[in-house]
Amino acid sequence: MIIKGIALSLALIGSVGLASADYAEGMRHYEQQAYREALQEFGDAARRGDADAQYMLGRLHEAGNGTAQDFVEAHKWYNLAAARGHRHAADARDSLAERMTAGQVAEAQQATRGWQPQAPPERQEQTASSQQQTATSRPDIESLSDRQGIAEIQRELNRLGYDAGPVDGVMGSRTRSAIRAYQADMDIARNGRASADLLKRLRQTEQEQVAEVSEPPTMASSRVALQDDFSDGDYRRNPAWTVLSGDFEVDENGLRSIVAAGRRSDRDTRDLSTDRPEELGLAVLELILEQTSNNRQGEGPPPSNPAQIFVNAPVDNAFRMELELASRQRPGSLQLGLFQGNRPNGTGYRLVYTAGARPGLSLIRLISGNMEVVARHEGQLDLEDGQFHRIVWTRDENGRMQVRVDDQRLLRVQDNGLRDPFQGVVMANRQGDYTLRRIRLEE
């Protein structure tokens, strides 16, 4: 909940506007995994009221990067960033609160109430007209070289909450991804290109506009259908997961599944070749369907044996699923999704992650044995960095779906092919080493 006193004090300070030099320097250190230096730079900007820097401080304290892990401090910075309208901070704060005790949350809220920005005197005395003058004093677009133009685009993207990386004028994959994410939010062509028209539009875009169009509609009410962090050490109870095939275990990090590459028939080798990992995810689903068909017709064992597990968790057609996942090897493929009826391998939606491939993430619809890709992230998605990654998948009552990975929206589509409620969650590991640390499903 946004604290009125905080909101008032922040409003008196005024909008930070352009991302500060401290924030840009902090992002440069963060990209290089120099977390202590990033902590210092973000701290300087955050104490002056920079919402982006406050959000990044929250991430550093939550993960324990560059400092001791401190959920109370992370919650405080997320809360402050949310009060300034940062588009991801409220979700990050609420997700973190689920892992905290009531006492820790109360302590963090108290720290938030007592916080005051440390703006320099000249900033406090700045009037609305001087703020406007600062905004209009940005370099003229026509006078910029190509490298300068890219640097200005990076600066504006970072200002709006899109992680474009260091403001260095180099057009890398991170900057392209940030451009595509912005273009998707603005419902314009997703070409990932830097241009004068893009820079002009970025300069005219306010953070409030981005937050309004990027966040999925808020549901009128919610009910938690599934919540499990496997802290009891047993996936068979509270709630009860059921293994369909393969091996699963619970260790100190969560529910783990390891499937090594095995011998395959000629057909399997063609479909699941490690030389073409981009086809692995789709081939896995074909094999699952083939397994169901073969078992039903008595034609013998399936050609492969993925590790599969499911849990019954009835949920409405509109849902929000949040999970934390770690991947430790590639190539490989993991599917996780919702199923309808009493067949976990049957009708439903599946997210397919294919490690180290393009597309790295696909959203697939299964109906009566027919499979269709309804959305895909064309870029490569690398989760094999030793970290847990947060995935949020939402669907509203109109069939609009979004999938975010680490607060970056990778998929957005409207699909009304499935209108009935879902019965539960299914996960299938065909090849790889994955750990599911936490999952929450609500309608």
Automatic annotation (TrEMBL):
Region (Disordered): 100-146
Signal peptide: 1-21
Keywords in alphabetical order: Hydrolase, Signal
Positions with biased composition (Low complexity): 126-138
Domain Peptidoglycan binding-like: 148-202
Pfam families the record matches: PG_binding_1, Sel1
SUPFAM superfamilies associated with the record: HCP-like (SSF81901), PGBD-like (SSF47090)
Domain of life: Bacteria
Classification via InterPro entries: Peptidoglycan-bd-like (IPR002477), PGBD-like_sf (IPR036365), PGBDSf (IPR036366), Sel1-like (IPR006597), TPR-like_helical_dom_sf (IPR011990)
GO function term, MF aspect, one: hydrolase activity
Name the record gives this protein: Peptidoglycan hydrolase-like protein with peptidoglycan-binding domain
